[in-house]
Amino acid sequence: MSLSKREFLQVLAAASVSGMGLQRYAHADTALADKNMYELPAFGNVSLLHMTDCHAQLKPIHFREPSVNLGVGAMKNQAPHLVGEHLLKAMGIAPGTASAHAFSYLDFDVAAKRYGKVGGFAHLATLVKRMRASRPGALLLDGGDTWQGSATSLWTQAQDMVDACKLLGVDVMTGHWEFTYGMERVQEIIEKDFGSKLDFVAQNVKTADFGDPVFKPYVIRQINGIPVAIIGQAFPYTPIANPRYMVADWSFGIQDDNMQKMVDEARGKGAKVVVVLSHNGMDVDIKMAGRVRGIDAILGGHTHDGMPVPTIVNNGGGKTIVTNAGSNGKFLGVLDFEVKNGAVSGFQYRLMPIFANILPADAEMDALITKIRAPYESKLAEVLARTDGTLYRRGNFNGTGDQLLLDAMMAVQDAPIAFSPGFRWGTSLLAGQDITREWLMDMTATTYSYATVTEMSGATIKTVLEDVGDNLFNPDPYYQQGGDMVRVGGLQYQCDPSAGAGHRISNMRLNGQLLEADKKYKVAGWAPVAEEARNAGNKQIWEIVEPWLKEQKVLKPHTPNAPKLVNVMPNQGLA
After folding, report:
1. For a FRET experiment, which of 371, 408, 448, 485 has its CA 20 to 30 Å from that of 88?
2. CB neighbours of residue 338 within 10 Å
């Protein structure tokens, strides 16, 4: 793709419109606010709608964006590693607006009460229908992490999300957490539910024995007579970040050479536009965009970065647009291409927040969601406790929601130290809200959420923290596996993200005393990836936390346990 300076300035101007808030419409009627927030004139002759990482959230939710999202190496102070005021300034978003609330953590509680909940498939469906009405032939692409993250998705083995996505009109998808239902269930859904209407694509998933493709590597769809190739890039580290036994017969990876081969093959078959539907994470996508020629855009997910302005990457074949569309059903990306003389000549991009108080619910989708949830509604709604402080997860090191899990594990399992995985999914609660079973499941619902207690030496604890730290802060994006730092309860430590592998973690202390390398410590945890844990008969993490919450009744505001950071400032990824 060739993009002139004039066209680049045009797309920046178009993107900055996404920063238009409701400040001057704060007391106006919904129709006026709606009109201004969701107007997007059609552009060009090829349109793609993009959603990703909804994590099975069918209903509107609150979700606090991170206040810590550190970039290291070449990614320091670059998108997506910008938070708070730094992000708003870089993206041209006015503080105090609806868009500022959608894209940043700033004034979260106040803004959440003012603008209400975000996401919800019924409200997303309304926006999808509006965009399709103005963009004939537009395709809806799903970047994955769709079938996991809620109680109903776990209890129905993802059938709730499959049915909702079919009704939403998803055309093409790729995956990550989808694979944690196991190979047979994934194949069953693709064969029985998707048929010829919805394509699951992943060029980087092969059979472990002979290296044969497991899924279609790409599809070519006609949009207004123009052949458009959608190449799938599933999460490359699935067998490492999740249990290997769930995908025992499949291999994954980044596979730049094969990606280049697929791009060239699609072009050879007549594709005039080539887009990668990716679940790499944005840093990985940016590096890939610089290494593989001929990709017009990478529509990315996995790292949950809501980026209203795309990143333009130069490579040997021209330029590639890289975007990331946030999480939890909060956003819909709209990418319009103008294709002339067999090539992309221009584009516009908008990442549109989904405000449930502004976009009306689509009646058909709302009815389906009501039907899906009906058998579980009373169980989901049971109140376990109340929180007097905001509960959230997202952020590089810890959040109040994970601190709740850590406190419960240490108390119930009589362990002085606890680890909680650095998952980026999980909804937020405002101060004063009830903690329901649904929220607890939003934070913990996986197919391997076993609670564990392990004896670890001080040296082993350091190794665990160093390994996760390298995964998060390796300066080479291809060695990053997504997710945030393991959340740590009871243990204080120091972290230098800029240090080399094995040297980021220091000064580990328990009750003020330095950990001893050879001494054993009792450590509680959950969601182990080892196959032995599946057969150990351990309780699920929610079975540990739920009775503890009922005993607490009211949770006071609590500062999450986070490491002391060194050698990080100045850094625009740190509030």
Report:
1. 485
2. 14
- Distance between CA atoms of 116 and 358, rounded to whole angstroms? 9
Short-list 147, 157, 205, 211, CA closest to 184? 157
Bridge partners, 554 (sequence order): 386
Question: Under a CB-based contact definition with an 8 Å cutoff, are residues 443 and 393 in contact?
Answer: yes
Confidence category of residue 26, pLDDT binned at 50, 70, 90: very low
Asked if the bond preceding 570 is cis, omega within 30° of 0, the reply is: yes
Output the six-digit token pair for 111. Answer: 């803004």
DSSP lists the bridge partners of residue 344 as: 339
The encoded tokens of residue 59 equal 């209903």
227 - beta bridge partners?
222
Across-strand partners of 522?
A: 455
Angle at 535 between CA 532 and CA 539, to 5 degrees: 110
**Residue 341 phi, psi dihedral angles, 5° rounding:** 55, 40
Q: How far is CA 434 from CA 59, 120, 552, in A?
A: 16, 20, 12
Strands 46-51 and 311-315: unpaired
Report yes or no: 321 and 441 within 8 Å, Cβ to Cβ.
no
For 34-90, the pLDDT digits (tens) are 557 899 999 999 999 999 999 999 999 999 999 999 999 999 999 999 999 999 999
Residue 11 DSSP symbol:
H
Q: Please say whether the beta carbons of 255 and 223 come within 8 A.
A: no
Can you name the residues that pair with 298 across neighbouring β-strands? Answer: 276, 322
Give 32's DSSP letter: H
Alpha helices (runs of H) in 54-97, residue ranges in sequence order: 84-91
Task: Kindly state the helix (H) or strand (E) to which residue 337 belongs, with its residue range.
Answer: strand 331-340
Tokens 């002085």 locate to 416
Q: State the Cα angle at 332 between 327 and 337, rounded to 5°.
A: 130
State the distance between the two ends of the chain, measured CA to CA, in whole angstroms. Answer: 36
Cα angle: 417, vertex 423, 425; to 5 degrees? 135
- What is the 3-state secondary structure of 113-149? HHHCCECCHHHHHHHHHHHHHHCCCCEEEECCCCCCC
Give the model's pLDDT for residue 36.
Answer: 76
Distance of CA 337 to the CA centre of its chain: 25
In DSSP notation, 163-191 reads: HHHHHHT--EE--SGGGGG-HHHHHHIII
**What SS3 string covers 381-411?**
HCEEEEECCCECCCCCCCCHHHHHHHHHHHH
Q: Are strands 218-223 and 250-251 parallel, antiparallel or unpaired?
A: unpaired
Any idea of the CA torsion for 546, 550, 556, 562, to the nearest 10 degrees? -20
**Cα(61)–Cα(393) distance, rounded to whole angstroms?**
14
* Cβ(365)–Cβ(164) below 8 Å: yes
The per-residue pLDDT for 2 is: 54
